[in-house]
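About this split. The held-out portion is used to measure sequence recovery: a designer receives only the structure tokens and must propose an amino acid at every position. Recovery is the fraction of positions where the proposal matches the reference. Here is one held-out target exactly as it appears in the evaluation file.
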């Protein structure tokens, strides 16, 4: 089942510049574009990705929205369960994938 864009879960993932090393702030914007493009096809039937720098540490690392409406963690769990997905497993997989993408982007 492929959902229309306005029904898809928007996954906002904020990446801290320090993840890219001491000069990460110089590369974070490029990395976020790279990561977002790399994730476009991942669960694209029901997810839209937004990978952005995390300059403001008061904002959550991961946030979920549908149709520009923020979801609580409980709502995120409920949404993911409709696709037989577990939110914790999903987030763990996302962080593993981002780690791989960081290594690829930095040429490690």
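Reference sequence for scoring:
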């Amino acid at each position: 089942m492929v959902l229309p864009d306005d029904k898809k879960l928007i996954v906002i993932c904020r990446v801290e510049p320090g993840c890219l090393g001491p000069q990460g702030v110089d590369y974070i914007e490029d990395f976020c574009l790279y990561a977002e493009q790399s994730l476009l096809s991942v669960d694209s039937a029901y997810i839209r990705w937004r990978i952005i720098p995390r300059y403001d540490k008061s904002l959550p690392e991961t946030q979920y929205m549908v149709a520009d409406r923020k979801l609580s963690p409980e709502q995120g769990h409920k949404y993911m369960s409709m696709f037989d997905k577990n939110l914790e497993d999903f987030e763990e997989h996302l962080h593993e994938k981002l780690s791989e993408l960081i290594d690829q982007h930095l040429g490690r």
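Annotator remark: The mean pLDDT is 92.
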